[in-house]
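Morning. Coffee machine broken again, so started the prediction first thing and wrote up yesterday's gels while waiting. Chain of 340 residues, entered below exactly as on the submission form.
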Amino acid sequence: MENTPFLYHTLVQVLSQPEKWSDLRHLKTLAWMMVGLIQARRVSLTAWVPSILGRARYAQSTVRRFRRWLDHEKIAVASLYGPLMQPALAAWGAHVRYVALDTSMLWNASCGIRIAVLSRGRAVPLVWTGLEHGSAQVSYDVYKALGDRAAALLPPHGRVVFLADRGCADTDLMAPLRQLGWHLRLRITSSFWLSRRGRCRGKGGGISLARGQACCWHPVWLTDKRSGPVHLAVARPHDGNAWWDVISDEPTDMTTLPAYGWRFDMEENFVDDKSHGFQWESSLIRSAAALTRLCLVLATATLSLVSQGTEVVKQGRRRWVEPHWFRGSSYVKIGWNWVQ
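Came back before lunch.
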């Protein structure tokens, strides 16, 4: 608790950068929510209360303050987070930007959709939305606006590679990505129909491979609509399970599958939000709009901790807060331990 005022004032200073707050009380409430999240190490409005310094006499008053903030329609998530994220992207620098789209289910009733930027083994949210949806598989129409918002945040120059898993694989996604000038690596299900010149049409699951083998097809067209052309890389792991069928807008080779594997950094981001970090599901917040604003708290906290963890490593102080000889923790965890 000794560092609480310092942490709060530091966060207020950082959050003031967008200069688009209609009410400074909203900014200060967000800063306190981030303090509570970082110190309680989980998403729980009641668990945040002991970390909050203020005039409220009763704990329930502070919880109601947080709840009103999450339900406030004038808190525009995109316009507040974007100006915080863009300087970080510029500071990290990269000739190639890998961005990943993924979904995460909460209580089998709500779905969080997120596009994150991947760099140096970390995934930091770019844009997101929450919706009431009973499945992690969503159509392109649902997340169409997210792609445009993500493109507006990324630096205008440089190569962007878009990654997505089977739950988001949609042929309607390919044309907009080409319009943005992005490249794609999408994992498709084995039930996708594939067509090749001079060959009979068949499903991806019909490709015969021995364990540990991989192959590439150039070019292919997808589904009855013959979307494409694209290129395909298929691999069968040694354990024989979870075949990888990855399509690309560029000719595939044995480097295509490892490049797609960067997407798993995105899953680590969700792990940080859930079981190994913020315990997102313990919030019990079901409103899609409130979940979207709650993700602003998570995203700004993640960005802050990743930036802190990156700086700690850059200064050669990682082993002050991590016992491993080589880096074994995420940048989020390193930054978290440093703040604590």
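The chain has two domains: 4-75+288-339, 79-266. Going to sketch it on the whiteboard this afternoon.
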